[in-house]
Each structure stands twice: as structure tokens, then as C-alpha cells.
Amino acid sequence: MATRGPVVDSVLDLVGNTPLVPLKRVTQGLPYRVLAKLEYLNPGGSVKDRIGASMIDEAERTGELRPGGTLVEATSGNTGVGLALVAAVRGYRTVFVLPDKMSAEKIRLLRAFGARVVVTPSGVPPDHPMSHYSVARRLASEIPNAYYPNQYENANNPDAHYRSTGPEIDRDAGGDLKAVIGTVGTGGTMSGVGRYFKEHRPSVRIVAVDPAGSLLGPFFRTHTLAKATPYQVEGIGEDMIPNSIHFQYLDEFVEVGDRESFLMARRLAREEGMFVGGSAGSAVVGAVRWLSGHPLPDGATVVVILPDSGDRYLSKFYSDDWMREKGFLDVGAAARDLIGRKGPTPALVAVDPTTVVRDALALLRHHDISMMPVLAGPTNVGSFQEDEVLRRALADETVVERSVATVLSAPFVEVGADAPVSEVLHRLKEERALLVRDAVSGAPVGVLTRHDLVGYLSEEEGERAV
Prior knowledge:
Elements: E1 20-22, E2 33-38, H1 49-62, E3 70-74, H2 78-90, E4 93-99, H3 104-112, E5 116-120, H4 132-142, E6 146-147, H5 156-163, H6 165-173, E7 177-183, H7 188-200, E8 205-211, H8 216-222, E9 252-256, H9 258-272, H10 278-293, E10 301-306, H11 320-325, H12 335-339, H13 357-367, E11 371-376, E12 379-385, H14 386-395, E13 413-416, H15 421-428, E14 433-437, E15 444-449, H16 450-465
Parallel strand pairs: 2-10, 3-4, 3-6, 4-5, 7-8, 7-10, 8-9, 13-14
Antiparallel strand pairs: 1-2, 11-12, 14-15
Helix pairs in contact: 1-2, 1-5, 5-7, 6-7, 9-10
């Protein structure tokens, strides 16, 4: 990569030579110098800028890509941006295929570069006709003068990091460098960096960080293919073994989870001033975990690669609402706290099965509610819902003189009073109301609805604003 100066020929000359910055607060207690390589400072906002020009240069050289052609790629977003930079400078059209779990910001970003974006289901196997891999291959075969870089198979993916990322780390980190730690998806970054250090400084450990659910780490350890399971962190991990990952250059794998990755990314922004993506959180969690179990000489230097910017995840883990919805954010409150904020309405308004429907309707109106549980002692036997009763009464007006037992709707789903707000939020996405039981006695103590949750969250947001 070109050395930066006051004037460059194009934005592509700004790719690479990203700085190393010490982590201080999030690594407090570790007796090491932990340096973060800020790949989000590349012009396209991610480490994937490095492979865009590398893959296209080779395709132009071999004649696979000709002037006026179209780049078609399967991507989680960042490689698409790297290719879009090249396309903007050199005059190519672009089509990118993304799985539907990727953030809306990534789709908007690619479209801002003029790309056509195709979104495919994320829950299908790699060889399924609707996977983003398969759709990208098909489009590349159908579009005239198209070129499919295929970062998962392209040797110029790891080679770009062998030629740039590895030497930069070697040059800038100093002689006490003991390990380089980073996440893996296609594996290009860590394979290229690993190859460089195996050839030039083999004592440096190359540690790959993989999300729980990916099959890369399990394959490294067992040499057998496991089944991938869903996870939320974007851009890392795989449900197949790409040809671009070279396990012989990787020394160890560390597994990390979604929640800890997202919380660490948020800490990096708030405590280190580094506005990064979830995979950067994964990398730092993995580094701290690995360093805690692999003592190095005091003062040793470790480099952690932070792959991309946080600006493409504002609607996801930087959103408190999204974090609560996914159960990743501990808001320090439980169902009992929501019950305590219901105001003048009693926490528990209920009837027994023998109550007359007319009287039950009057009770709803008195408390300005539309539904309530039907309890036979402590047993949750059903629910009484105004809209359903009125629907029946339109067909048969004598319904109002019968017992509640004749108009039962399904009972409310139950949660314990200790259930965190995140669980309540998750349950209320599917249910209109929840019956809350005391954790010790098991007695019903209240009902929670979406209205109660919205009121609570609004109060919390107001308190934070103040």
C-alpha cells in the first residue's frame, strides 16, 4: 500500500497503514501492552478495503474483468464497500448479495455507492439456491461482462494481508510483539497475517477469534465438520470452510458469544473512544480471554485487529432497544419492578370462572383495561378478553348473562417476578399480556401488557435524557 502524504492519486491510495493505539481501560489488570489496529480508519470503514483493489487488480491483469464490467459479490457488507471504492474510481458497476441478517445501514451504504443490492435468506445452507453464495454465482453467470471476485475462494484475499497488514504490524508493534489476535470469517486477514509472521517472526502467536455457532473453530480443533448454528455478530464466522482460510498459519482459536461481543464494542466506544463494530468487540473479548489463560512476559506487546466501524450498526447493538429485544442488555430491572409502576390500576385484576360475564365486563370498564386473567384459586385457567366477548355477544346477546367459564380465551403466558425486563420484552413481542407469579410463594401477583412496558421504557429514556 502507498505511503500516505498530503496529496494522493485516488481514495484507493488511502487504504492501509492504519495506526496502532493502546487499549487501556478495557484491558485494565492485564500486565501487557495491548495495541488495537484501527482498521475502521480505512476509507471504506473496514479491513475489507485491503482486498478490494487486490482482487480487482488481478482480475484486470488476467482479463477476467474488462472495462465497463460489473462486479458481483456475495458479502456481509464490508467487502462490498471495499469493492465499491474500486468500482467508483475505475468505472465499474456493482451488484452485491447479502444475507438478511445484515444491518440496514450496510444496505444503505452500498446503495449510496450506486450498487444494486440483493438480499437473501440467512437461514439456508451454503449450497441452497437462495443462499447469498449461490445467488451471487448465478447473477455473475447471467449478467454480461460480469466478474465474481468470490472472496471465499480468491487467493488475493489472504495475499493482500500477507503483503500489507502483516508487515505493518511487524513494523509498528516493536520487538516485544508476542501475539496477533483477530476475528475470522473468510479467514483472509488472519491467514495472510499468519503466513507473514510464520515466515518472518515465527515466535509470534496467531490467535483466531470465532463466534459461538460458527464451524471454523470446531473444525480447527477436531478436523470434522460440525453444523453451524445462528449467531448475531456480523461479518465473522462461517457455515462452511472457505478456501481463503489457511489453518496452518493459525495457532489457536478462541470462541466468544454475541452478548459479550456487543457489550465490549459498546465499551470500546465509551471507554476508549473507538467507534467499532461487533466483530471488534469479539476480537477484544477473545484477546482478553486468551491472555488471561496464556501468561506472557510482563510488558509483552499484543496486537488486536479491530475490523470495522460502528456506524453501520447504529440500528443494532448500539440501540438499547435492540439489545433489550435480543436479551443482551441487563437493565437491572425485573417483572416485579414493572408491576410496581402500574399507577392507579391494581397490579392484579382478575375474576374466577363463576363470575357473570356482565359483571366481568363492568370490572374491565371500571379499571379501563381490556383483558384480565381468569383464576380458580392460584390456577391460571384462562383469560377474559373484551373484544372476544363482545364479538360473541353480537351473535348471541344472552352471552352476557352466562358465566365467564363459557367465554374463556387462552390463559396468559406466565413469567416469574424475577424475570428480567429483557425477557418480558421478548415475551411481549408474541403475547398481548403476561401473568406474573411470585418467585417464592408462586401466587399470581400481577399482569403486564405491552402498554406497561412502553411506559416503563419511556420513563427510563426520560431519566437518561435528564
